[in-house]
Amino acid sequence: MILPPTLTAPGQLPEVLRRQGYAVMGADAVCELADCPLPELMALRPTWDDLPPDKYLKDGGHYRRRRHSCFVVEEGGGVVQSPHRAHWQPVEYNALHGGMERWFEPMAPAVVGTPAWRKLLRALAQVTSGLKGERPWYVEAHQFRIDTEGGIGRPTPEGAHRDGVDLVAVFMIGREGIKGGETRVFEAAGPAGQRFTLTEPWSVLLLDDERVIHESTPIQPIAPGAHRDTLVLTYRAGGFQGA
Predict the structure, then answer these.
(1) Which one-letter DSSP state was computed for residue 106?
(2) How far is CA 112 from CA 29, 165, 221, in A?
(3) Which segment of 55-59, 128-132, 160-164, 185-189 scores lowest on mean pLDDT?
(4) N or C, where is the chain less crowded by C-beta within 10 Å?
(5) Element spanning 142, H or E
């Protein structure tokens, strides 16, 4: 059974994030927040069909494809793409893949060169500044495809985790022929938790990474070509994470 999330309107977003540390917005709310028509976002979806395999999975799996690029959103709203760099996390936040430089192929100009992309980055920078105070934000962007060619796919093989940043945004891009992929959010310092399933393309889960931990359950196929596509954006003050 798929449990739908409780949705938050843009005007309610600051209060909901402060109160519970996370919020879910539907696609219409995302478009309102970013001042971006939904067709402009939907036009990016075909780029998920061209993601190279993730060669760093330590569990021996071959179920994940991804691209990764980095950006800085300046206080005035300027968006600058950073020189390509490795993705790195400390082991305290990623026990499975932490402590290693992972070099993924960069995101395509067909995504990062569009007005929709810059609108999205700016809008979430404003959300993060409202939560943490205005400053430049260092953004890592990850396009993911989790497939089921091996029978099962794991969106978060590291388990329930934090990312060591200030804000995490997990966009649902598409679910095709799968079951599973339930999102779970827990208080980092308490017992409370919620579970639900993101299904609507361009809906988003926003997380105050200091306050909550999150994971997604494995997916299984119910039709040929089954997969789950997401976009993950992380916002961090002071600089990118590095060794």
Answers:
(1) P
(2) 21, 21, 31
(3) 55-59
(4) N
(5) strand 137-147
